[in-house]
Specification:
GO molecular function, one term: FAD binding
Distance between the termini: 18 Å
Keywords: FAD, Flavoprotein, Oxidoreductase, Signal
Cofactor: FAD
Radius of gyration: 24 Å
Family: Belongs to the oxygen-dependent FAD-linked oxidoreductase family.
Oligomer: single chain
Number of helices: 18
Largest sheet: 8 strands, antiparallel
CATH class of the largest domain: Alpha Beta
Bound molecules: flavin-adenine dinucleotide, 2-acetamido-2-deoxy-beta-D-glucopyranose
Number of strands: 21
Low-confidence stretches: 1-20
Protein name: FAD binding domain-containing protein
Length: 581
């Protein structure tokens, strides 16, 4: 309906000689304005034959639809692969998002064979990006032909920002360059640095820098991207207390802006773009080709695990509350990081990360806590190790790289920052524990993954960093905590219920128990109902929006909950439309 009225209005506009402006909504296949095969083929020529038409991986599981390609054996293999090694199976596929919610029931191996395989919200075409010229060609094409753009690196995004109905995708996966500069020198940093191509994942960069004798701030999960969503979206790390957040590490961005300008943004040149890219959310200000970050000399790291179980619910939850209360003393003004899961059954510290220390550092931080477990007759098991490098500790806690084994690929998940004042105050602490206790109950089955970190400004431990757009709520947090539930392949309705419970009840309860802080903008459910501009971007939102408008005057960049997102909406057929135009 809307598009028809629009095209009439446009026709009238043209007839009376008014300037023709872009339609309100981006075209999707089937729309009259959708580019012809010939136009796509011209784009393909411009990008040297690097244009790929998306064919859903699960087409081998379906007999209906344009993409049908049923093959019993391939489909059986795919089912196993997607559940057991989802990252290895889907990450390297152009146009394929990782999170099943975003292709939903349109073509997946677990829906009935005779259900047609359709693209759904997958990109229609991807450019296999090899450099700036490919991106410039795609930007120009999208603008001239009114086509929606997305960027896919790993496709992990929880908000579906790396996929979109009717879109042309910049697939940056093959930008696999890594380069060390032992003597990076600028007014804002002198020392070792590493330049990481946009397609590199954490596991790859860790192995690379380890071989050179360095460690860097990067994701815990090997399968997570590096230069894309992760660093642009703030990025937490096991080394955050030691060196700062991922965005704090950035020395240079190599980027193509939405108007097609290729540039290097630094704290001195194109400073506003540098600032926005470092923490202001991915996929909004430009297409990053590489990021250069600080590197640090590697050395020993003490690690280990601690487990205690719920053998007496009241005693257990009291102990969990005490554990949180001691969080600040464990990490504040120190390079230490402690990562753990809390469920109704168990508190499992799966990684202590004590850079440049030995296991006595773990014994020391636990000295006030372990007697509290004994006092409550809660048996525990503690194991500690002296590792020779950061990588050795990471591998022992998260599993073999590059992908790692600990991180579930498609959980239903949120992430709340936890302020120091909440865990330290007995009443507030108890309120938070009551929320945990309710939603981790067996009937709901949530567990909460949490990390104690310190990111306060002005610390004597962490190096200084250039000014960036990291939401200041991070700086007075002592932890970020992720409610988690696995994806139910055999019963997607169950996962939809989990998403609704998370966004409708559990997460709002966590927010109410932790007032005056924010969320991790990368790790939030797509149905999130909170005050996203504040919780994700805080005081920086308006400034970020100005920078977005400056660099993206044609409104080519959009992402759910990205800066400027509310200037767009999706219509009933999921066309991306502008609110004002
Ligand atoms: C299994 C899993 C493990 C995770 N582990 C961690 C972790 O250990 N630590 C952590 O902090 N976070 C982690 N995250 C969250 C993660 O940081 C986000 O999902 C992030 O969006 C991933 O970015 P990506 O580039 O890999 O993914 P994509 O989905 O490909 O992209 C995410 C966003 O970044 C944009 N983008 C991608 N590449 C570029 C580029 N080159 N230029 C501009 N924009 C770009 C996209 O447009 C999109 O908006 C994890 C997520 C999952 C699902
Ligand atoms: C683009 O061109 C290459 C090389 O000719 C071809 O292999 C590929 O199929 C083309 N892509 C599309 C979408 O037509
Ligand atoms: C996925 O399917 C469920 C169940 O049909 C529906 O409620 C949900 O809105 C769908 N999600 C998307 C992103 O289309
Ligand atoms: C993408 O390009 C790379 C070279 O940059 C090439 O090795 C790879 O095969 C291409 N992938 C696809 C799916 O076309
Ligand atoms: C905790 O429970 C698990 C599972 O029942 C058990 O294997 C483990 O030994 C228990 N650990 C402690 C410290 O009691
Ligand atoms: C780690 O090394 C320190 C210093 O050498 C030593 O005291 C400690 O016992 C070692 N820890 C373990 C678990 O081996
Ligand atoms: C939590 O775990 C305890 C110990 O296993 C169990 O007895 C209890 O029923 C569980 N509580 C809820 C609310 O599920």
């Amino acid at each position: 309906m809307v598009p028809r009225i629009l095209s009439i209005l446009l026709a009238i506009g043209t007839a009376i000689g008014e300037p023709l402006h872009a339609p309100k909504c981006r075209y999707i296949p089937g729309d009259k304005g959708w580019p012809s095969t010939k136009e796509w083929s011209q784009l393909n020529n411009t990008v040297g034959g690097r244009l790929i038409a998306t064919v859903p991986v699960a087409h081998v599981c379906h007999t209906g639809g344009v993409f049908s390609g049923y093959n019993e054996a391939s489909c059986a293999d795919l089912k196993v692969a997607i559940q057991e090694e989802g990252a290895a199976t889907l990450q390297p596929q152009p146009g394929e998002p990782m999170n099943p919610y975003f292709y939903n029931l349109t073509c997946n191996p677990f829906t009935p064979v005779d259900q047609p395989c359709e693209l759904g919200t997958r990109a229609v075409y991807s450019i296999n990006v090899s450099g700036a010229a490919d991106v410039q060609a795609g930007l120009k094409f999208a603008r001239q032909n009114n086509v929606r753009l997305v960027i896919k690196n790993t496709g992990l995004d929880y908000l579906g920002k790396s996929t979109g109905k009717g879109s042309l995708s910049f697939w940056v996966h093959n930008l696999k360059t890594l380069e060390t500069n032992k003597k990076f020198s600028s007014s804002y940093y002198k020392g070792p640095a590493v330049k990481v191509g946009a397609g590199i994942i954490a596991g790859e960069v860790y192995e690379y820098v380890n071989a050179k004798g360095y460690r860097i701030v990067g994701p815990e999960c090997g399968l997570c991207g590096f230069a894309g969503g992760y660093t642009q979206g703030v990025g937490h790390s096991q080394l955050t207390s030691a060196y700062g957040l991922a965005a704090d590490q950035v020395l240079e961005w190599e980027v193509v802006t939405p108007t097609g300008q290729y540039l290097i943004a630094t704290p001195e040149k194109h400073q506003d773009l540098y600032w926005a890219l470092a923490g202001g959310g991915p996929g909004t200000y430009g297409v990053v080709l590489s990021v250069t970050v600080k590197a640090y000399p590697d050395g020993p790291v003490a690690g280990g695990t601690l487990v205690f179980n719920n053998t007496n619910s009241d005693a257990y939850w009291e102990a969990v509350g005490l554990w949180y209360k001691m969080g600040p003393s464990m990490v504040q003004d120190s390079p230490k990081n402690v990562q753990f899961f809390v469920s109704n059954a168990t508190l499992w510290v799966f990684a202590f990360v004590m850079p440049d220390q030995d296991t006595s550092a773990i014994d020391n931080i636990l000295a006030p806590f372990l007697p509290e477990l004994k006092k409550r007759s809660l048996p525990y098991e503690l194991k500690t190790y002296n590792y020779t490098s950061y990588l050795e500790n990471l591998r022992n806690s998260y599993g073999a790289l590059p992908y790692g084994e600990l991180c579930p690929v498609y959980p239903v998940l949120g992430s709340r920052l936890i302020p120091r004042r909440v865990v330290l105050d007995d009443t507030a602490n108890k309120k938070l524990m009551d929320v945990y206790r309710k939603y981790t109950a067996d009937e709901f089955g949530w567990f909460v993954g949490c990390s104690f970190i310190d990111t306060a400004e002005g610390s004597s431990v962490r190096p200084k960093h250039p000014d960036n757009s990291v939401n200041p709520y991070w700086r007075d947090s002592i932890a970020y905590c992720n409610p988690n539930n696995p994806w139910h392949w055999d019963d997607p309705a169950h996962s939809i219920r989990d998403k609704n419970q998370l966004s409708g009840e559990f997460f709002p309860a966590m927010e109410a128990a932790t007032p005056g802080t924010g969320v991790y903008l990368n790790e939030i459910d797509s149905l999130y109902t909170g005050d996203w501009k504040d919780t994700m971007y805080g005081v920086h939102y308006e400034k970020l929006l100005k920078i977005k408008h400056k660099y993206d005057p044609y409104d080519l960049m959009y992402g759910h909950f990205a800066v400027g997102a509310d200037e767009f909406y999706l219509d009933a057929q999921e066309r991306l439309c502008k609110v004002k135009y």
